[in-house]
């Protein structure tokens, strides 16, 4: 198999949109690399550039170490599977799977055997005579995969191939798809906005934001050691708590002043130049543990229970702490026409057809335009930052804590949580990590 790489790959569309901005990544031979990021961050454009369906503005695509910028899509020998599968409705499953062979003018003799072979690999042998209209979503997905591998591509490019399926099937198929790619040993670029897919399927995850690569690493690394505030905020369920604070290096101790509360943190040389600096503190729910009131020794946060989301085996408890949360991005979220802050506009919940909704649709054509149903907030792994950035700003001082069932606190009760300060992550005002470990 072959390595797939991009070198400072850039795509600027004629209307000035910088969809991909100097992205350099490499999927090693046989690797399953996931491109993860919110809608509109340039994932599909990167795949299309690699496939040769789109021409780069600058930079290069390399397959097996060779620059392929001038090679046509067909000669790149990569297979792409799209979100909507794009099966031919009037062709049977067998004809759909065999289609790339006939289109490639390969000798007809081998076709049938090859179709049977990949049908077997994908477990769709029984469906070969059916039309796509008579298949379930999961079956259509498998047929699309079969069609993609029939010509033995050098690489797979998969663009949100599971996002049209319901949650249960998605969970089942993500294991299947990753296992298949590994069994075939095919180098794979897999695009998704779903962090759970990325975490469960990837050898490595590449996190993108607005066309810019934020971080590449194994799932445990992007989760446990995020390089930027965006990565810390985007990855993590429940939502990562982001709090505004300031660092004070006192003679006896180092503290993060969160306004209404104070956390003492271990002294650290990395903080030497940061006395008085404003920072964002990212603290995941797994660094917070409820303790009996009073809290005993050690760093704690205190709050009042505002909301309890019961998930059965545990609950997500939202605390009002009086601490100011950090919006992911304060400065750039302005209505392109009126200059009004998007959070304010969204708070007014403009109806469909409102100029803002239209502007949003232009900025993010694939973004859902309707509000997210309440239950989706707590579905594991589905938490697009697009919502957190724009539509779903947490209320002031909202800190989310996991509490194991069955003893759940009640609304209005006060609660103390012990903070594992070794798991606090500090970011400077530019959103860059201040590494303390
Ligand atoms: N043909 C196009 N013309 C202008 N802008 C485009 C075009 N295709 C995509 N874009 C823009 O480029 C950005 C990246 O899009 P895309 O790669 O589809 O993102 P993703 O797949 O991550 O959702 C978006 O802002 C999108 O609106
Ligand atoms: Mg896309």
Automatic annotation (TrEMBL):
It comes from the Bacteria. Residues 4-235 form the ABC transporter domain. InterPro entries: AAA+_ATPase, ABC_transporter-like_ATP-bd, ABC_transporter-like_CS, ABC_transpr_MalK/UgpC-like, Mo/tungstate-bd_C_term_dom, NA-bd_OB-fold, P-loop_NTPase. Keywords: ATP-binding, Nucleotide-binding, Transport. One of its GO terms (molecular function) is ATP binding. Gene3D superfamilies: 2.40.50.100, Nucleic acid-binding proteins, P-loop containing nucleotide triphosphate hydrolases. This is ABC transporter ATP-binding protein.
């Amino acid at each position: 198999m072959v390595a797939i790489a991009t070198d400072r790959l850039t795509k600027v569309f004629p209307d000035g949109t910088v969809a991909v901005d100097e992205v350099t990544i490499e999927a090693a031979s046989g690797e399953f690399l996931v491109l993860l990021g919110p809608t509109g961050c340039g994932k599909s454009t990167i795949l299309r550039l690699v496939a040769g369906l789109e021409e780069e503005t600058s930079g290069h695509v390399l397959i097996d170490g060779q620059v392929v910028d001038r090679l046509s899509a067909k000669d790149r020998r990569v297979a792409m599977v799209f979100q909507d599968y794009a099966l031919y409705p009037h062709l049977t499953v067998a004809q759909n799977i065999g289609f790339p062979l006939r289109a490639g003018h390969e000798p007809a003799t081998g076709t049938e055997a090859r179709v049977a072979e990949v049908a077997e690999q994908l477990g769709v042998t029984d469906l070969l005579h059916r039309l796509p209209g008579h298949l379930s979503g999961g079956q259509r997905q498998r047929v699309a995969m079969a069609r993609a591998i029939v010509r033995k591509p050098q690489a797979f490019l998969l663009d949100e191939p599971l996002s049209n399926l319901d949650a249960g099937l998605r969970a089942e198929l993500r294991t299947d798809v990753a296992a298949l790619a590994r069994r075939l040993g095919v180098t794979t670029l897999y695009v998704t906005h779903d962090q759970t897919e990325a975490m469960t399927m990837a050898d490595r995850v590449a996190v993108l934001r607005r066309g810019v690569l934020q971080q590449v690493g194994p799932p445990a690394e992007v989760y446990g050691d995020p390089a930027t505030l965006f990565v810390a905020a985007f990855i993590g369920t429940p939502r990562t708590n982001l709090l505004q604070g300031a660092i004070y290096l006192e003679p006896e101790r180092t503290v993060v002043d969160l306004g209404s509360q104070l956390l003492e943190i271990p002294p650290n040389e990395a903080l030497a130049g940061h006395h008085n600096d404003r920072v964002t503190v990212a603290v995941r729910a797994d660094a917070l543990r409820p303790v009996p009131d009073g809290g005993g020794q050690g760093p704690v946060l205190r709050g009042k229970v505002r909301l309890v989301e019961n998930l059965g085996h545990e609950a997500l408890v939202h605390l009002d702490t009086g601490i100011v949360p950090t919006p992911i991005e304060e400065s750039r979220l302005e209505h392109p026409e009126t200059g009004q802050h998007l959070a304010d506009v969204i708070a007014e919940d403009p109806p469909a057809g409102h100029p803002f909704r239209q502007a949003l649709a232009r900025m993010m054509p694939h973004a859902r335009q309707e509000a997210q149903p309440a239950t989706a907030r707590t579905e594991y792994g589905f938490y697009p930052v697009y919502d957190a950035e724009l539509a779903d700003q947490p209320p002031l001082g909202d800190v989310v804590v996991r509490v194991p069932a069955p003893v759940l606190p009640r609304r209005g009760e006060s609660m103390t949580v012990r903070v594992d300060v070794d798991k606090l992550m500090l970011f400077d005002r530019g959103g860059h990590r201040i590494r303390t470990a």
